[in-house]
Specification:
mainly beta, Immunoglobulin-like, four-stranded antiparallel sheet, three-stranded antiparallel sheet, 1 helix, 7 strands, 37% strand
């Protein structure tokens, strides 16, 4: 006997993968409602790093940035509130909270780290620790 619903499922799937596919098939999940981490870019120079993170709709007050040894930790929280006396008819913007740590291959200088939030993009300039940067050595004449 042929069952049309079996066409979409691979029979070699394990139970957890099967339940994940069933859950996804029967539950609508909007792309903006997923707990996704923001897109990021990391660039390196001899003096340090430039880290860019897309955080649309997040204000400066809702962001936290910590630098410790070789780790950069970012966290953000966005709350979407309904005005007092109003009721929500449709809500496609969801609030969220996330925290992520990035580990670098070198020690970081927290004192010289600077951050700027502009047009929904957080740019963090992270300096490498002074002992890791190249130094010019004076050569004496004997």
């Amino acid at each position: 006997m042929w069952y049309p619903w079996t066409v979409d499922f691979d029979r070699s799937l394990n139970a957890s993968e099967l339940f994940r596919q069933l859950d996804r098939a029967f539950r609508f999940e909007a792309p903006w409602a997923r707990e996704a981490e923001p897109a990021s870019t990391l660039l390196e120079t001899s003096e340090g790093y430039e880290f860019r993170l897309e955080v649309p709709g997040v204000s400066q007050k809702e962001l936290t940035l910590e630098v410790n040894d070789q780790t950069l930790t970012l966290s953000a929280k966005r709350e979407v509130k309904t005005r007092e006396g109003w009721s929500t008819h449709r809500a496609e913007r969801a609030g969220f909270a996330w925290k992520r740590s990035y580990t670098f291959p070198t020690k970081l200088d927290a004192e010289r780290t600077k951050a700027k939030l502009e047009l929904g993009v957080l740019t963090v300039n992270i300096a490498k620790a002074p002992e890791l940067q190249p130094r010019r050595v004076q050569i004496g004449v004997s």
